[in-house]
Specification:
The chain is α+β, with helices and mostly antiparallel strands. Helix 8 packs antiparallel against helix 9.
Amino acid sequence: MAFDGITTAALCDELNRKLSGGHIAKIIQPEPCEIILTIKNNAAAWRVLLSADATLPLACLITDQRTAPMTAPNFCMLLRKHLAGGKLIDVTQPSLERILVFRIRHNDELGDSREWKLILELMGKHSNLILVDDKGVITDAIKKISFNVSSVREVLPGRTYFIPQTQNKADPLTSDEEVFLSSVFRVSRPLYKALYESFTGLSPVMAEEICYRAGADPDDDASLADEPLKTHLYHMFQLMMDDVRSRNFQPAVYIRDGEPVEFSCLPLTMFHQLESRSFTSVSSLLTDYYAEKELRTRIRQRSSDLRRIVSTALERNGRTLALQEKQMHDTEKKDKYRIYGELLNTYGYDLAPAARELKAVNYYTNEPVTVPLDPQLTPAENAKKYFDRYTRLKRTAEALTERIRNTEEDVRHLESIAESLDTARDEADLDEIRAELVEYGYIRKNSASGKKRSQKARPLHFISSDGFDIYVGKNNYQNEEVTFHMARPDDWWFHANDIPGSHVIVRGEGKELPDRTFEEAGRLAAHFSKAHNAPKVEIDYTLRKNLKKPTGGRPGFVVYHTNYSMMAPTDISGIREADET
């Protein structure tokens, strides 16, 4: 989600409450577009991160230490000169713009008090951090912008600072009904787009939320809205702005399938079906949200080489299997050659010399058969030739049967590893997958031997609505662990029918499981399977004591002959994941 004006307002409120009146004790610039101010206030030291990075513009209070470069950049030195030791008067936000203004009073070299503004513009690729003096003139910026780069506004020392008005948007905090109606419904465009294009600070997500609260379809044409809908939308819009004006913020992250998908400082009722996680401050929300996003991005990047290895091996085995099946199809002629030999031995005694064919009746089917002959060979020699062909093809079929079985097993194994890569959540999971690829020869052993192993990975742990522990393996090693080491004979085991997926174990503790727990375990097995994008998946479930591991089988592979089946949806929202920390 974009760092919109409402999030900026919530952050401004938090920074004001915690930092106003404090003194700037330290200024560092750990990254080219990132400044960290240490502000001491009310016997506490706060570190505030101000980032104008184009890919992740951000402002929040942080708790971790950052390392400053040996030589401070020029912009950092300038801030130290004019702001270090100064008093933070307040933090403000113009209208509902994505802008934070830090007003700082500082004594210069002559002891004269001057007021400075450190302005953070959180505007995507146009983000910037600008130092402005008490006359509104730019002293310097972390990114200098000339007219060669932007025709809208120069950001250079000596230029007067102003907020660029590149879009004709109204202030949502001061707009009345007349402004709302004339701005939103004047042209043909989707309703949610009309909202965020008409007012500063509204993101597309918040515009959709206003539509949802009003019971309107966000994709409907704004110019065709009737009067009752216009009035209802305006009231929902004003209720949201009332929350902003009264600082009634409720920071939360919304989670789908275990992954954060949106964050907001006002409730997103349109995501009522998703799991949500509340926070006591905007800074903690932003820190947690972006840390989780960064971790998942890093996991995807780290798994890319493993995905490439698995994909290549699957393609190779697929080609091999296709060739083997073609060869097996060719061996289907073997029985015809055996019958030809038998018919020659039975009826060949009265053939004329140098005959080119034998017409006979196949005594297995009572159908007429014509057997081609080599006129230079005797009937007995022709029969031997056909029996030799039969024997060769029979041996080939026997060898191919074993090879096809092994290749199909390799394909199933690789598909299970590919599914494990989609389920992996951390470095330890990837280490286990890499170890499995090494063990089965898909990666050379020395290519992974030098890698330092992270801590041991653990299976996922959920708590059913009825209080039963449910464990989910994230890869084949973990499937082996939860099924054959953690599970007891009378625990229940769940798995997607005939497709790669996680083993799911419900610890019964000697009790009879309620139907709701069976249903939730089935949903987990459906979700953590290759068919997780399908609406429903067929799930097999049985007692753990009914499972056996095939001799010499790959990790996580089981056989069973007694089971029940159910159709389970893949949606796992509402199933609580246990806190293992």
